[in-house]
Amino acid sequence: MLEVVELSKHFKNKKAVKGVNLYLEKGETVGLLGPNGAGKSTTISLISSLVHPTSGDVRLKNESIIRKPEKIRKILGVVPQDIALYMDLTAEENLEFFGRIHRIKKKDLQRKVEEVLDIIGLTDRKKDLVKTFSGGMKRRLNIGVALLHEPELIIMDEPTVGIDPQSRNYILETVKRLNTEKNITVLYTSHYMEEVEYLCDRIYIMDHGEVIAAGTKEEIKAILSSEQSIAIKVEILKGEYLQLLQALPNVKNISVQDPAITLIVPKKANILKDLFKLAEETKTNIISVHIETPTLEDVFLHLTGRQLRD
């Protein structure tokens, strides 16, 4: 349905996107991951036709949209990371306003507004001012605006940032329903790996403006098929112990979420003796040690050197 070919964008002295290639099949949900500054937002702007590329192409159903951006704008819905609503209007008035921007015929507009309010679960709050809404409700209305013109493709840029778990779950279920019941193709970015695990068929990982890994969840995890993850929980995390762990020759990556430490090491490496020896030397009390198969988060850390939320 959509193909990005050798797409690049340079801003003065910065190369924000460098030869990105990716594709979306009709009806897929595809994750686009990367730490801050990886080039995700610029890539989304290029696909959305908001920014003109330095080189490369974006093809919608085998037709370039670079010279004719209206082709993608008609079938694209975008849920931006920032709330893009009018706080002093009601939910219904916001949807009607954006519906007119989409040039939805007057005779169809009220029906579509009601349909969208039902999808996002805000029918009973349609007459309320948006400024009275919780963060989760605003996020849901943000999604509703993107659905008004019945898009074939929707880009969702971190749609669950800063909201409560209940609203987050509602949004995830809504995205899942839109994909399965309405066959809407979704490009989804998030700082929460569990969301990507739940929603996405395939994943692209970006860093420093480039795609550094792509595939299904299983294919991405296979990058560390010869590795194992060792999670160490300590009573008090000491800097000396952490430094000694980092110096071990078989430790490929290390991440810290105090008081837990996660190491990525080769499966053949037997370093448990070293872990306890170093703990004894630094008087570090180990509470538990778990050896697990690497997760998507572990692979992301291995590839980028950073956690997804960094």
From TrEMBL:
<dbReference type="InterPro" id="IPR025302">
    <property type="entry name" value="DrrA1/2-like_C"/>
</dbReference>
<keyword id="KW-0813">Transport</keyword>
<dbReference type="Pfam" id="PF00005">
    <property type="entry name" value="ABC_tran"/>
</dbReference>
<dbReference type="Pfam" id="PF13732">
    <property type="entry name" value="DrrA1-3_C"/>
</dbReference>
<dbReference type="InterPro" id="IPR027417">
    <property type="entry name" value="P-loop_NTPase"/>
</dbReference>
<keyword id="KW-0067">ATP-binding</keyword>
<dbReference type="InterPro" id="IPR003439">
    <property type="entry name" value="ABC_transporter-like_ATP-bd"/>
</dbReference>
<dbReference type="GO" id="GO:0005524">
    <property type="term" value="F:ATP binding"/>
</dbReference>
<protein>
    <submittedName>
        <fullName>Antibiotic ABC transporter ATP-binding protein</fullName>
    </submittedName>
</protein>
<dbReference type="InterPro" id="IPR017871">
    <property type="entry name" value="ABC_transporter-like_CS"/>
</dbReference>
<dbReference type="GO" id="GO:0016887">
    <property type="term" value="F:ATP hydrolysis activity"/>
</dbReference>
<dbReference type="InterPro" id="IPR003593">
    <property type="entry name" value="AAA+_ATPase"/>
</dbReference>
<feature type="domain" description="ABC transporter">
    <location>
        <begin position="2"/>
        <end position="233"/>
    </location>
</feature>
<keyword id="KW-0547">Nucleotide-binding</keyword>
